[in-house]
Amino acid sequence: MLSYLSNFGSGLADIANIFFTEHRDTMEQIIGGEGLGAPDGAALIKEGDTTSFGEDVIQASMETPVIVDFWAPWCGPCKQLGPAIEKVVTAAAGAVKLVKINVDENQQLAAQLRVQSIPAVFAFKNGQPVDGFVGALPESQIKAFVERLAGEIGPSPVEEATAHARALFEQGDLASAAGLFGEALKAEPGNPDAAAGLAKCYMENGDLERARQTLSVVPPEHQNHAEVRSVEAALTLAEGSGDTGDVQELRAKVESNPSDHQARFELSEALMAAGQREEAVDELLEIMRRDRNWNDEAARKQLITLFEAFGPTDELTLSGRRQLSSLLFS
User: Fold this and answer.
1) Which site among 130, 132, 271, 324 is 20 to 30 Å from 240 CA-CA?
2) pTM of the complete model
């Protein structure tokens, strides 16, 4: 994995390191310290066993709801659920606690609670089990489960940090944004928003290789995350932009032969590299109007890549998708 705090690359690294030094206290307040992302993370999440169950769960739940996660090292769904439930519990900031029980080491306890399949999760309140579920759930459902016990949960420290970093990026403060995205990744490795944000910082700094390396740390289950897909598409376009031709020459070539789809495709690439997004989309749509199947639907595929790079809410994405749909279904 990348060393986010020391390998920002030439130029950006020096600026980012200065930012870390000058703003360390502020950043740690946003992130919430080291470890699990909160100063009292160790107290919120602990490993339990048969001996400590009475104190860690029954007695503790008299004051604070306690979630018990029965898991095993060999259990694939447990590995998926564990980090997600820890993240939500940490975000609850002390309103709920989590005790993790390894069923291989505590078979008698698992049998007493009639755990027949794992992961199995129980919620205890006032010394009694009040809720539970079996199997891995998506984070949204885990959050709803915890909120039934602890009330509404606000954004996690990492979510707050990435939102702040995103705002800094939009303001043009590249070094500060990169530093905060990096801190978010340090607190939560593989976080898709933080990885995508840091990759964008690298791209803006012209370091496409490090941008690609940063995206590589995103785990498979987050590869379809909207921001990751957007940065991935933008990076693919940037990596292929070095060989684009001259806009004026390509435009003249197209005007002399409007049926030269290859020249029009290259013109679109050159326009995109020059920052003329709408014109680039228009040229690809024109290829679609003339021959939608040209070169194994190259124009349609390139349009999809552009729309992903622009993002789902971009006005050009919305209008371009409408025009593309009209062409495909006419």
Assistant:
1) 324
2) 0.57
